[in-house]
Amino acid sequence: MKGEAFESATYSRFAAHARMDSDWDLAKALQDSADSNRTRHFAREAALDGLVAQNPDNLRNAIASETNECKMYTQFALEARQDGDLGIASAFEEICRDKANRCATLDGLLQDMGIHSQIKTVA
């Protein structure tokens, strides 16, 4: 599934680049490949794996994943700062802020259902 998801995201970026170059046929071919990987291949594998559950569980899983990634990006930013790569550190910190905001939004949706995530999110 990770391979399908990565290919879908990669091919979408390739398609965006082709659109910037006004290469419409290439953009369509790449976007079609991206969409197929996401909507056919990934979706089928996810169904076989039982990836999707009930909405509260899906929200909890998303919050946990985003929280773990934020912790990872915080560490990356720290290491980049220590290496003097301030631009990279700033990019990682921005990604972490985005993920922390997403966690807060998802946790709010979970609380609207009357459920607490029981996950300590990164703020």
Description:
The protein is an all-alpha fold and 123 residues long. The chain folds into two domains: 2-49; 55-112. The chain contains four helices and no strands. It is flat, with a radius of gyration of 18 Å.
Structural class: mainly alpha
Order of helices and strands: HHHH
The 3D shape can be described as: flat
> Termini distance?
29 Å
Number of helices: 4
The percentage of residues in β strands lies in under 5%
How many individual β-strands?
0
Question: What's the pLDDT, averaged over the residues?
Answer: 93
Main beta-sheet strand count, sense and barrel state: none
Unreliable segments (pLDDT under 50, ≥5 consecutive)?
none
Number of domains: 2
Percent of residues in helices comes to over 70%
Radius of gyration over C-alpha positions, nearest whole angstrom = 18 Å
